[in-house]
Amino acid sequence: MSVQAYVPSKPGLRVGTGGRSAFTLIELLIVIAIILILIAIALPNFLETQIRAKLVRVKSEFQSLATALEAYRLDFQKYPYYDAWGGGGSYSPIIYRLIPLTTPTCYINNVSFRDPFLAFEAGGYGDDLTRYYYNYRNHECFRTADFPGFTVPVWILNSMGPDGAKNQGLMTEIWARGMVPFGQVIIYSPTNGTRSAGDIPKTGGMTRYRG
Q1: What is the value of pTM for the model shown?
Q2: What is the spatial distance between Cα 203 and Cα 155, in angstroms, rounded to a whole number?
Q3: Are 102 and 111 contacting, i.e. CB atoms less than 8 angstroms apart?
Q4: Measured between alpha carbons, how far is 211 from 208 in angstroms, rounded to an integer?
Q5: How far apart are CA 88 and CA 49, in angstroms?
Q6: How far is CA 4 from CA 1, 11, 15, 17, 155, in A?
Q7: Pairwise CA distance, residues 210 & 177, whole Å
Q8: Residue 166 in 3-state DSSP?
Q9: What are all long-range contacts of 77-84, with beta carbons under 8 Å and residues at least 24 apart?
Q10: How are the residues of the chain apportioned to helix, strand and coil, as percentages rounded to the nearest 5?
């Protein structure tokens, strides 16, 4: 006559082969729910950290470009402006406008700084060009039929900001001088939340913009 050992079972556990216990379906659902809650809490913080890291990157790269721009002006008494192809405003990315910073004198190793907030084609600039880089203009770019007398030596760098939309950041200096209506230019401010609307401009020279 064989004797079987008695194995007491705990509430909520199912005794399997070899006396091993297993989770019930309800317990598995509870564990999955807890994991989903933790993900829901952690994901927004992760995305916020990404945006803050990109903002730091924009400021750092703008400062590097600003140093090169001012060094160029010390040598030539003007800010770089390259438009050999006659591209006009449509060709304002830094890899085009700032060619003089890299050759023949190297004021900066390269100007291929990609805008971390602009990683898609035709990013809201209103043309069919692929956009990946920061944009640049100086006072010569603005000397058009709309602003024929704008000769103040200034430069403007612009990032599209977290919203990835065109908010007229390249017009910041014109806006700061009261030459375009208030509200036409939207400037990004982290005080409104890291994902708030607006472009991220940086200006130099005889600028009136204070940002």
Answers
A1: 0.75
A2: 5
A3: yes
A4: 10
A5: 37
A6: 10, 21, 15, 14, 89
A7: 11
A8: coil
A9: 78/153, 79/138, 79/139, 79/153, 79/154, 79/155, 79/205, 80/138, 81/138, 81/140, 81/141
A10: 40, 15, 50
Question: Can the peptide bond before residue 80 be classed as cis, meaning omega within 30 degrees of 0?
Answer: no
Number of other CB atoms surrounding residue 154 within 10 Å = 23
Cα separation, 207 vs 202, in Å, equals: 10
| Contact predicate 116/54, CB 8 Å | yes
Q: Which helix (H) or strand (E) holds 176?
A: helix 172-176
The two three-digit tokens of residue 179, written as one number: 């030459």
Q: CB-side exposure of 112: number of CA atoms within 13 Å?
A: 2
pLDDT in tens, the chain (211 residues): 555 555 555 555 454 555 556 678 888 888 888 888 877 776 676 678 888 899 999 999 999 999 999 999 999 999 998 888 877 667 788 988 899 999 999 999 999 999 998 865 444 455 555 678 899 998 887 777 677 778 889 999 999 999 888 888 999 999 998 888 888 899 999 887 888 899 999 999 999 998 7
Give the span between the Cα atoms of 115 and 131, in whole angstroms. 9
Whether the CB-CB separation of 172 and 180 falls below 8 Å is answered with no
Residue 203 CA to residue 141 CA, distance in Å, equals 14
Query: Running DSSP on this structure, what letter comes out for residue 94?
Result: H
